[in-house]
Amino acid sequence: MARFIIKRTLLGLFTLFVIVTVTFFLIAGAPGDPIAAKVEQMPEKAQRVIRAKYGLDQPVFKRYIIYMKNLITTGDFGESIIYTGRSATDVIKANAPISVKINIIALLAQLIIGVFLGLVAALNMGKSVDHITRVSVVLAICIPSFVFAALLQYFVAFKWRLVPVFGWGKPAHYVLPVLAYALPGIATYAKYMRSSTLSVINEDYIVTAKAKGATQGRVVRKHILRNAMIPIVTMLGPAIAGIFGSSFVIENVFAIPGLGSYYVNAVRDNDYTMVLGLTVFFAILYVAALILVDVLYGVVDPRIKVAGGED
Amino acid sequence: MVSRESFLNLSDEVFERVGVDPEFSEHLDKPSLTYWADVWRRFKQNKLAIFGLVLMVSILVMIFVGPLISGKNYKYMDSSVKNLRPNSEYWFGTDDMGRDIFTRVCYGGRISILIGFLCTIVMFVIGSTLGALAGLKGGWVDNLIMRFAEVIGNLPYLIIVVILTMVMGRSIFAIVLAMSITSWVGTCRMVRGQILQLKELDYIEAATALGADTARVIFKHLLPNALGIIMVDITMSIPGFIFGEAFLSYVGLGVRPPETSWGALASAGQQQLMFHPHVLFFPCLMIVLTTLAFHLVGDGLAEALDPKLRK
Residues 92..121 of B with a Cβ closer than 8 Å to A: which? Predict the structure, then answer.
């Protein structure tokens, strides 16, 4: 197990190194001068000073070394090139918690509602509950989340005035973003839960449990749910890894001051250093979460532990 | 005495020796079907899948023939007909620059579906070639390819796509490259698994013994056999890429105007949702219908290809 963790961590570090390096050189080689628009009107000398400030007078490779050194020794993600004085580190500190909060609530909603729907549909296979769930699942998968977000905004907030359209801070502000963000996930979990429940439901141990006189509720809770959840647990890995940076669009539609909106705006503004800093931050969290999830699998599912040990 | 022969007028010539017809004795009750004929037969029985297929064909016909019927130019702006609701002249209404939305939706659909197809082809070619190579060669080749796939698979997808399109510009080529460069990992793993299963079979050994080289074994024997599962994967991937393009357009990295796509149209419509909901409605409807069609066909295909479900 220790060997597996070390191996996984090394691979993770290598991946991170690749991401940071590739991102750095891609952005450094991007067409156009990142600060040209800003310094155009200035005298020659001022331009040189500003270039030196951002290290743009140095050759690319040297900039890379400096960036890596700052990143590793001081955890400095870089400073915005458009908004003077705004550093990526500050933006992350101020806004990452908001994104994480939304993502965790949405993930829980997806898991609980999705598993429940899938289970109910499978237990009532062929009945109307099942048909309605299946059709809704297909429809929900087919709607891009920003469209669903826009629809919710239009009807629930704008036409019926049940919750505020924009804003942040009160619990009512969470309702629509979480709903819009969770919908595709709910549908996916429901779909997989339904099929995995159906494959478990006729197993011998279920029949045995029923034959021994277990009540329907007990059979569902103790036997069906636990076994049918295994594939769902496997799907949780990427979902947990994604909680730090996959809500870009939703944050943008609802004007939530999370990290995702900053990222999208930095991309729109061509704020190269900010994009680089945030990308590195997302990548670190993503890779760390993947490692954590892989290790946790070994703890949760004994079969994976065996495979990991053999590897 | 009248002879029996003359009375019944039966002579030896009337009779013919039937003997044993080897072909007839081999005759089965069911006409033999090739694999694909059988798949098609089962696919046809699935009403939902056929509905999906019809929907898919109708959408394709609409986006290619639609502009000819409407007789309008998708770039033509007419400031006298801004933001019209759908009517007999402008079937889907007009946008904020007085362009005909129906024609724009048709043109946008061409781009969206083109991107979906191209991404899927690139993903499929890279993924299945590497997967087949890894599965077939084994040893260090397998190790190298799978480690490489692991690193690529560990990259946060959306972020990589955003960075790549940001750096390479917003041409269709850049979008396709950015989206397919990280997505082949799944195909690669799946094809490798299939190949590992298939290559133990005798006919592969026979082909190798007869002197077929690796390329011939891959393209002549292995790919056709893995084709079923790959086809399902392809049908399910296209809507994913259409969504991906919609996301990029939303972030502002989609196709460059005056070219347009469903994603670009939807993201433009999203901004005017409160006042002119029809601008958002039609591109979204097309995205939803297309995704639905591909999902239904993919599900039907998966069911038709699964020998376990054969009746």
Answer: none
- Strand, coil or helix: A106: helix
Q: Tens digits of per-residue pLDDT, A113-162?
A: 999 999 898 888 778 888 888 888 888 887 877 778 888 888 887 777 77
CATH (domain of B137): 1.10.3720.10
Task: Flag whether B164 is in a domain.
Answer: yes
**Could you name the CATH architecture of A97-268?**
Orthogonal Bundle (1.10)
Residues in B closer than 8 angstroms to A158, CB to CB, are 274
Supply the DSSP string of B46-68, one letter for each residue: -HHHHHHHHHHHHHHHHHHHHHH
| ipTM of this complex prediction, to 2 decimal places | 0.70
Instruction: Kindly state whether residue B219 falls inside one of the protein's structural domains.
Output: yes
Written as six digits, the tokens of B177 are: 């490259």
As to burial, measured by CB atoms within 10 angstroms (0-12 exposed, 13-18 middle, 19+ buried), residue A250 is buried
Average pLDDT, stretch B70-87?
70
pLDDT, tens only, A151-206: 888 888 777 777 776 666 677 777 888 888 888 888 888 888 888 888 888 788 88
Nearest to A142 among B247, B273, B291 (CB): B291
Q: What is the pTM of this model?
A: 0.75
